[in-house]
Amino acid sequence: xxxxxxxxxxxxxxxxxQAGEAIMAIYNEGDFDLYQKDDExxxxxxxxxxxxxxxxxxxxxxxSIPILSEESCEFSFTERKTWQAYWLxxxxxxxxEFVSRSGDFAVNIALVVEGEPVLGVIYWPTQGTWYYAxxxxxxxxxxxxxxxxxxxxxxxxxxxxxxxxxxxVSRVQKxxxxxxxxxxxxxxxxxALGSCSLKSCMIAxxxxxxxxxxxxxxxxxxxxxHCILREAGGNILDSEFNALSYNQRETxxxxxxxxxxxxxxxxxxVIIPHKTQRTL
Length: 280
Prior knowledge:
Layout: H1 5-29, E1 34-36, E2 42-44, H2 45-61, E3 67-69, H3 77-80, E4 85-93, H4 95-100, E5 106-113, E6 116-124, E7 129-134, E8 139-143, E9 146-149, E10 166-169, H5 175-179, E11 189-192, H6 196-204, E12 210-213, H7 223-232, E13 235-238, E14 257-260
Parallel strand pairs: 3-4, 10-11
Antiparallel strand pairs: 1-2, 4-5, 5-6, 6-7, 7-8, 8-9, 12-14, 13-14
Helix pairs in contact: 1-2, 6-7
């Protein structure tokens, strides 16, 4: 029996909030443990605390649905490929932002059904803000009790040029990392924000128009935001403009990817396709 995302949404938002509160308790105290994973990416005790809250909450909510998290992903592909539906989690996207105390980190929850994210919830705990979407039901932003529908910026006017497009950038990534893949890197206004998923949400609500992610990420980095972006009128594609896949390969590593707003823009006039350098 397929899970109904609409029936699960309110509970999932609550669980995301609870995980955010677990992060904020550590963030406000300022006392946390910092570790380095095998891939040399950072992880903190706040990541693990959020993971525990999410895992416990979702297991109670949907005992029969498996959970795949960045912090607990030790399932073989032989096992994973039998899953019709599963939860895909990034307990704290933006660990480096947490460490640097920028506040730009978020809890990510996606429900993936038959290889497609059909429910996405992202909670930004320092701002008390949710972004969420259900397939074919639109994308939304919630601050407190205020809920509004969100959409990417549309560029249908006749005087539009690609120079109008705003590029979301990381505060820490070197500009030439993504600049080498742009037709004209200098023409775009740059909008800086922290975590990968929050930049995607900024595009979904019209605050920027595109974003390039060059470097190691996992499927948990895109699952929730992919659903939100699609419902807001955008998309996430790999660096050669192909669709991203979920749970279709032995590896859970993403290729380099492109987050786009208005799908009617000819993005190949803006972004130079490239093959990722990592083995997938």
